[in-house]
Amino acid sequence: MQIIKTKSYIEICQKASEILVEQLKQKPKSVLGLATGSTPIGLYQKLIEAYQQNDISFKGVISYNLDEYIGIDRNHPQSYYQYMYKNLFSKVDMKDEHIHIPNNDISKIDQQAGAYNKDLKKHTIDIQILGIGSNGHIGFNEPGTPFGNETFIVELDEQTRKDNMRFFNNIDEVPKYAITMGIKNIMRSKQIILMASGKEKANAIYKMVHGEVTEEMPASILQLHPNVVVIVDQQAGSKI
Ligand code: PGA
């Protein structure tokens, strides 16, 4: 693991965007694995700026998102579908047909994980962006998830629902289920950039970097990946 410690959240986003901009310049048809949550928002802003300055284009980019809630519609403001269009896709020249976000239509929910997994296997992700949960989850692979899992439907950890309550009016509104890429899908990416900011992440970052590789700490599997860049600010990196 390459670890980059920065002074601030803005610097995390700057470093991550430098890697991505370089990637898109070298390979305009890159396949990107994208994440949601608070952490990547500043990265997406930097990428939008690079696009506006004609440094990069997303015309040839193919994207796969890590996960999506189940139990809220794609039109719900907190769906990851809405998040991606609001924070990135509507502001760059991505082609709709190149965008992949797990489908959460509950009328066909039994088929969605298998369908997304099949789609994922059409490409190899060049760079996968990850955040990390305070409980060590990556994507929505919660503690205890088998490392061998491919895309599946997960019951969210209570800690994750509490952490994400800030986006909803109350805990009852936070979805209980989600569809997520599995650890095995994530580990197939050629390169992984994990971004973490804030003291709530310090324990998880410590265990990910120095702890035992165990399904109880999903992010610890990244110790076994050959090309991981971890970018943290002072607070998230305070224990490493
Ligand atoms: P956050 O979420 O960026 O909103 O902290 C990270 C995650 O849960 O993976």
Give the total of beta strands.
10
Average pLDDT confidence is 97
Q: Compute the separation of the termini in Å.
A: 12 Å
- Secondary structure class reads alpha/beta
Helix content: 25-40%
Largest sheet: 7 strands, parallel
Radius of gyration: 17 Å
Small molecules bound in the structure, each named once: 2-phosphoglycolic acid
Describe the structure.
The chain is of the alpha/beta class and 240 residues long. It is built from seven helices and ten strands. The chain has helices at residues 9-26, 41-52, 80-87, 109-120, 158-163, 183-187, 202-210; strands at residues 2-5, 31-34, 62-65, 67-70, 99-100, 127-130, 152-155, 177-180, 191-196, 228-232. The protein has a seven-stranded parallel β-sheet. The protein has a three-stranded antiparallel β-sheet with strand order 4-8-7. α1 (9-26) crosses α2. The two termini are 12 Å apart. The model has no long low-confidence stretch (mean pLDDT 97). The structure holds 2-phosphoglycolic acid.
Layout of secondary structure:
Layout: E1 2-5, H1 9-26, E2 31-34, H2 41-52, E3 62-65, E4 67-70, H3 80-87, E5 99-100, H4 109-120, E6 127-130, E7 152-155, H5 158-163, E8 177-180, H6 183-187, E9 191-196, H7 202-210, E10 228-232
Parallel strand pairs: 1-10, 2-3, 2-6, 3-5, 6-9, 9-10
Antiparallel strand pairs: 4-8, 7-8
Give descriptors for this structure:
three-stranded antiparallel beta sheet; globular; alpha/beta; binds 2-phosphoglycolic acid; 7 helices; 29% helix
